[in-house]
Amino acid sequence: xxxxxLLDLREQLAAIERRLNALEGRRPAPTPKPPPKPTPSxxxxxxxxxxxxxxxxxxxxxxxxxxxxKYAFENNWVGPVARVSIGIAVGIAILVWSERFPQLFxxxxxxxxxxxxxxxxxxxxxxxxxxxxxxxxxxxxIVTGSLVGLALRDRSExxxxxxxxxxxxTPVLLSTGTNHEVELFAYLALLDxxxxxxxxxxxxxxxxxxxxxxxxxxxxxxxSSYYTAAQMGRTIGFATLFFLIFSAAVSFRGSHTAFIFxxxxxxLAYFIELSVIVQRREILxxxxxxxxxxxxxxxxxxxxxxxxxxxxAIALGFVTVAIPLELDAVWITIGWVGEAAAxxxxxxxxxxxxxxxxxxxxxxxxxxxxLLFLDTFHPQHLLWNMRxxxxxxxxxxxxxxxxxxxxxxxxxxxxxxxxxxxALALIGLTEEAWDFFSRGxxxxxxxxxxxxxxxxxxxxxxxxxxxxxxxxxxxxxxAITVGKVFLYDLSALQRVYRILSFIGLGVLLLAISFAxxxxxxxxxxxKVNG
Length: 530
Description:
This protein is mostly helical. Among the domains are: 61-176; 437-530. The chain is built from 19 helices and no strands. The protein starts with a helix and ends in a 12-residue tail after the last helix. The mean pLDDT is 81.
């Protein structure tokens, strides 16, 4: 029987499979990966031994040395010159020694060393009179300059802040109790310029805040002790110089929130300083206008949108201040209304817009408050007078808000603006009726008639615009009118006016009821239309 080719092929495949199995059996098993070495844990014992004992030991040595020196001083073992020399040597040694430690602990030692140096120089000048005030001032300035050099070397905001703090403490420690305005403010200006240079190199926010606060406190301290009217021009000049330095610093690094805060604080502090010095309304108004122009110019060269918005807001804030300083009576209200309109218009095109929304609302609130409670009018003609103009301008702004909010479907803003404009319109018309009708009875009837007509007009607009909110406003006004007619007109008006009041109210209410019953328009769908 001939060999079967298929059978031979199967036998060959089986042989190949046996060889492969044999080879796999001799292959070494893959070596498993070694487990990761456990990272040494930073247990409490290590923390105590390496860090806490070290720092406690340093503190103990310093305290012991301080007590030894105190004991030596009390027993006159060491004279004044040696005391000052020891203090300076110890301060320098601590500063040098601090370079051997990690950053955080090194900073702590630097604070101690710098403090010892400043106190030693102060003692040499003030306690022992070993050196004059000028030499002590120069020595403290050298310490401050050395710290600035260390800050630049290490790029350390902390050391720079320590240097600036020491610089501002120098005139306090070496004060002689006499007036040296030019020397003091020139020194402060140099410190502020140094801070400005450092901020231009590095974004050290806190450094600039320290410089601003230090300058402000030293200025206040000098002013409360030494200022006289004869120094007005020179003092305004230095205050302006400080203001310009910090304005420039903010312009360099204006993207940080702290710098935005500093821009507002700098402007506010400067204007308060001017207000205290000048105390003349017309001159302060011109300063406010000049500052508004200054910050408006800064807004055009601002490097960030946030800083641009801040400068615009400050400029408009000074406009708000300038209006009552430069204008009189009702023109103050009109000026604030115009400013509110400008701010709210800017909020539609400038980002971020929140600050302009808030400032615009604030200015508009000021205007409305003044219009309702402070402004006095003596009109000679009905609706052709300054009161009608002021109300019309204010209502126009609220109308603009209503239109914009309706387009953006901002229902809450639209409702608030609609209520405000209708309330102002009704109050203004009521005041016009009060002044036009001299007789009290006719005036009371005119109020009822006016409110009924206004409520009817509001109802018609609510139907035509398919705005239930307007119709509810109309119903609320009509409810107030009903209360007045039944509770007041019934007893106070003469018979003719009483009859007219009741008939007019009844006809109006029947007409409105008829409109609802006929369902001329759908009254259930809310629709906002500006």
